[in-house]
């Protein structure tokens, strides 16, 4: 498989994963409420970020993608301490969806759960590299 074709396949899989993640998030919100739905939403937020990292960098290794996704999720959560996301969210639904509004320390844990889950799925589902003969 050529490198270009491989990257296209990985990107297509990342788009599919992102779509499934959004569907899972909407599904959880439609059948559950309260703390469970919130925690699941936090984890799925990071799974979505992970899929977007793979979309942008299809050759990224799963561990690096997990660290980047968790770090970005944490950065957004910590940014909420400033109050800027809450202010932006009052003017834009998109900003509210992407940036949230209020800092909540337990969210940091659920972002790690999402990153670990995405990492595990990526490790299981990614195509294996085949070593050339004589290596």
What does this structure look like?
The structure is a single chain. The model has no long low-confidence stretch (mean pLDDT 91). The chain has helices at 3-31, 34-56, 62-79, 84-91, 93-99, 106-125. The protein is an all-alpha fold and 135 residues long.
Task: Give the secondary structure arrangement, pairings included.
Elements: H1 3-31, H2 34-56, H3 62-79, H4 84-91, H5 93-99, H6 106-125
Notable characteristics:
78% helix, 135 residues, mainly alpha
Oligomeric state of the chains? single chain
> Structural class from helices and strands?
mainly alpha
What is the helical fraction, as a range of percent? over 70%
Count of folded domains: 1
Cα distance spanning the termini: 18 Å
Number of helices: 6
What kind of sheet is the major sheet?
A: none
**Approximately how much beta-strand content do the residues carry?**
under 5%
| Number of strand segments | 0
- Order of helix and strand elements from N to C terminus: HHHHHH
Write down the Rg. Answer: 17 Å
Mean pLDDT: 91
Low-confidence stretches: none
| Broad shape | globular
């Amino acid at each position: 498989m050529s490198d270009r074709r491989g990257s296209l396949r990985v990107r297509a899989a990342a788009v599919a994963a992102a779509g499934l993640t959004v569907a899972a998030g909407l599904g959880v919100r439609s059948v559950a409420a309260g703390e469970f739905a919130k925690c699941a939403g936090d984890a799925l937020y990071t799974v979505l970020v992970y899929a977007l990292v793979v979309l942008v960098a299809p050759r990224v290794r799963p561990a690096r993608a997990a660290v980047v996704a968790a770090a970005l999720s944490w950065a957004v959560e910590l940014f909420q301490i400033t109050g800027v996301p809450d202010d932006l969210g009052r003017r834009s639904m998109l900003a509210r969806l992407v940036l949230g509004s209020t800092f909540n320390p337990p969210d940091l844990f659920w972002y790690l759960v999402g990153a670990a889950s995405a990492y595990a799925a990526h490790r299981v589902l990614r195509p294996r590299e085949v070593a050339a003969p004589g290596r």
